[in-house]
Amino acid sequence: MEIVVGIDIGGTKTKIGLVNKEGTCLVQTFFRTRDYLDLDAYQLQIKNTVDGLLQELGGTPIVLGCGIGAPNASSKNGTIENPANLAWKGSTPFVAKLKEKMPMPMRIMNDASAAALGELLFGRGKEMTDFIAITLGTGFGAGIVANGKLIDGFDGFAGELGHVDMNLGDGRLTGLGIPGGLEAYVSATGLKRTIVYMQAQYLDDSRFRNVAFNDLHGEDITKAAEEGDVLAIKAFDYTANIMAKALANFTAFTQPEAFILMGGLVNSGKWILEPLNTYLDQYLLEVYRGKVKILESGMEGKTAAICGAAALIWENHQTN
Amino acid sequence: MEIVVGIDIGGTKTKIGLVNKEGTCLVQTFFRTRDYLDLDAYQLQIKNTVDGLLQELGGTPIVLGCGIGAPNASSKNGTIENPANLAWKGSTPFVAKLKEKMPMPMRIMNDASAAALGELLFGRGKEMTDFIAITLGTGFGAGIVANGKLIDGFDGFAGELGHVDMNLGDGRLTGLGIPGGLEAYVSATGLKRTIVYMQAQYLDDSRFRNVAFNDLHGEDITKAAEEGDVLAIKAFDYTANIMAKALANFTAFTQPEAFILMGGLVNSGKWILEPLNTYLDQYLLEVYRGKVKILESGMEGKTAAICGAAALIWENHQTN
Asked: What does the domain layout of chain B look like in residue ranges?
């Protein structure tokens, strides 16, 4: 059996799994990224984890290679550069170093681009040639597929839309210190920031007036909206409005058939999706109206990022 | 000898030429678009013009097909839809109708996308896989090339960036009545609008205080800047600033290696290009800084649009 190692490097967890040709993650595990601040120790932990998974899987699988999704990764250079949420600063030659420990075909890519590739090979993008995958977790990520191909960009940094000031909000700082960047508003973290913003902006009573910022959780905001909490509903509406403006702009760029959404914010379901659809219809140029779908990812949440990373290698073994 | 018919449909002129494999326009002519308001009469005039050019060229060339660049064209549907500057309203099945008169392989495309394809096959894009061609004439057009391929979008309307409100200006109306669209600022027409805006905004004396809006011409604005006219210089700076913000946003999308500029506004040379480069460097995310070139089109201005249109057919006859 042929398999691919998929690795998703996040600020909190590093998830690793073995993925077959159909995009099924056969075995998986994770460790805490911050337990290994030194690059060498971190990569040794990856190697040991992969060895353990191969043992757990059993048999004699042929390992075709290793795909890695990471924030601020350059696919063309095999590097991770100045990530906001990882310990290694500057430009880290991640692939070259890991290959010394695990000699096999290896590719790294921005995590949102990897997610888009996962959707293209294994998910809701299978039947589409033009779509944009949007990840809405701690940050805002975008992976763009056009003409049936992922767009890498000149040196592998396409789709870094979270930090660009699109003049859509009121100048909130992103993790990179950039005012007005999309991810300060449109992400799971952005929603929390909007909850406190709404407390400043309005006088409505809200359950969140008794909750500290650091104790805010997405699920609670969804539940509050369901119970009619005015500030929670206003926060979703505010987030959806800014997101719709952004997606309308993106549509004029590559005219995707669909946006495929994933990540924490999507778990809020109709509270974010209903206003998003309403506003998007309003902001789209007439020529695009009614032609752009908003879809939720069809990938299983827990392993989606691993399968996306593995898609970097499976892409080169497709036989169609 | 093999040749392709290239047709550029503009609001004022319809330019037609015969283009060889190297992208040289061998013979060419034009007629006034508005002299033929009826679609049938217009297309008959195209056919007669092409027949005349073939006769002028002489010999027995093999006509491989006909490529057409037009505003608001859908490449996938072969239609022109609700153009702001043409007489035919609604959705016009332009290709199907013209094929009845000129039965040959035929493709139509947004004029800016055709220009991008022209650059890819014959111009400065030859050595690049990722670039964006920007046309700055009456309007603002963008043709996006990524992975060495033009991006069409789901139904052929990618790159319609001129009418999108990106919140970059102060809400000027575009030709489609959309407030804040890019082409209200960043285009040859936009520059003229900015000249009168500057007269409202500032008290500086200027030669343009004696010129009516309808008598404003791009060349005069350039000449005035050269002579130190403060309002002219301010107008270029204002235009370049908004353009730089837009290009910085576009860069975060597909990370082009270069923007290739063409159209009337580019003739202003350093007056637009110098502030554009300065502002762009300022607005780009760090990860992109120093990696994005601003280039002027290498195509001969007079025939660039014809060659771009012809590229739609030549693209399918490349042998590399």
From this structure: 2-120+301-317, 128-296
